[in-house]
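Issue 218. Parser rejects a valid record. Input:
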Amino acid sequence: MDADRKGRRDESPRQRLQGELRELRQLRELRAREGARDRRAEPAAGGPSPRTRLDQPRTARPGLITLPSYDPEAFGKLSERIARFLGTGRFIVWMTVVIILWVAWNTLLPDAARFDDYPFIFLTLMLSLQASYAAPLILLAQNRQDNRDRVNMEQDRARSDRNIADTEYLTREVAALRQGLGEVATRDFVRSELQSLLREIDERREAPEAL
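Output the parser choked on:
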């Protein structure tokens, strides 16, 4: 300790201040570690759970039934792909081919090979199931497209506002330049003034000679 005090006396005030700041940081880190250990030890001892902070959102408590989580962005992209495929002629062609094959299989083949006799109830069920899934997927794709359109409209509006502001600024600058150029002497004005001065000088020279 005495050696440290002697060393501090020999140091400059700036070095002494840096050393004290370093010690304060070390003490603060030690207190923070001790506080973290105490907080970790409280739940382990079976005491009451610490109160959540009011400046942070409350975390949801796990219930008895946990629903599966999914990525909304990936699901939205998949719905857009399906909606784009449903709106193409390829889907209509493949759907027509499947229905024709289904009807031909259950009409022309023997009874033992048929799996959906007339009036094709299973085919009707499959088509209704496909329509019930296609409608929400198309609506989801439309909602995503509406969101993109709204963002694009906001960006276009902001861009148009910036263009209007830039145009007004340039208009003011051009008007200021015109006013400035109106006050600047042009070449013709300087030439006319020089001619008038030369004419006055000649008249003054001719006046004494006449006398």
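Fixed in the parser; the record now loads. The longest helix spans residues 121-183.
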